[in-house]
Amino acid sequence: MEKTVPQEKKKKSDKWFWIILAVVITGLICLRVFVLDWIWISGESMLPTLTDGELVLAEKVSKNTGGLSRGDLVIVIYPDGMQCVKRMIGMEGDTISIQDNMVIVNGDVIEEPYLNENSFPDMQTVVVPENSIFVMGDNRNHSSDSREPMIGPIPDDNIVGQAISVIYPFDRIRGVK
């Protein structure tokens, strides 16, 4: 004689399945909206740090807790709506200039070991406005960034998060700095 699960028990297990599924989906949505984001790298503006075709994971918490620092990689939204990864060079109130292939922040030349090439045009002094950051690509000669008048300093509201790791392709998984 074949045993059958009583109809009432089956309905209960189906109900729990849907409740658990709803909780998991809600959790994943909250994680995506409030904690994590990602972006595909397209182009060569962040070479050698990031390369075309890599998928970068970012956390969103630091931008809301004052945890971002000069030198961090951040995902930002440009005035035209495009999202991209750039290096944060300056914060509100900083004075930034470029002279003789050196970036000068508040009168100090910053060390940039992540650059392959140290040949890029001079830039007049810029003061980063309140509630904004100044960003540049690591591949300075092939990057559209805050040096361009059409982009300029990025408002804090246009910071998506801090890039923390490359998660694809799998053979290039690594943390990023």
Automatic annotation (TrEMBL):
Bilayer topology: Single-pass type II membrane protein
Keyword line: Hydrolase, Membrane, Protease, Transmembrane, Transmembrane helix
Record localization: Cell membrane; Membrane
Domain Peptidase S26: 16-167
GO biological processes: signal peptide processing
Catalytic activity: Cleavage of hydrophobic, N-terminal signal or leader sequences from secreted and periplasmic proteins
GO cellular component annotations of the record: plasma membrane
InterPro entries named in the record: LexA/Signal_pep-like_sf, Pept_S26A_signal_pept_1, Pept_S26A_signal_pept_1_CS, Pept_S26A_signal_pept_1_Ser-AS, Peptidase_S26
TM segment ranges: 16-41
Keyword Electron transport: no
Pfam (any one): Peptidase_S26
UniProt-listed Enzyme Commission number(s): 3.4.21.89
Signal peptide residues on this chain, from the entry's feature table: none
Active site per UniProt: S45, K86
Enzyme class: hydrolase
CDD domains to which the protein is assigned, alphabetical: S26_SPase_I
GO molecular function, one term: serine-type endopeptidase activity
NCBIfam families in the record: sigpep_I_bact
Family that this chain belongs to: Belongs to the peptidase S26 family.
Protein name: Signal peptidase I
Species per Swiss-Prot/TrEMBL record: Christensenella hongkongensis
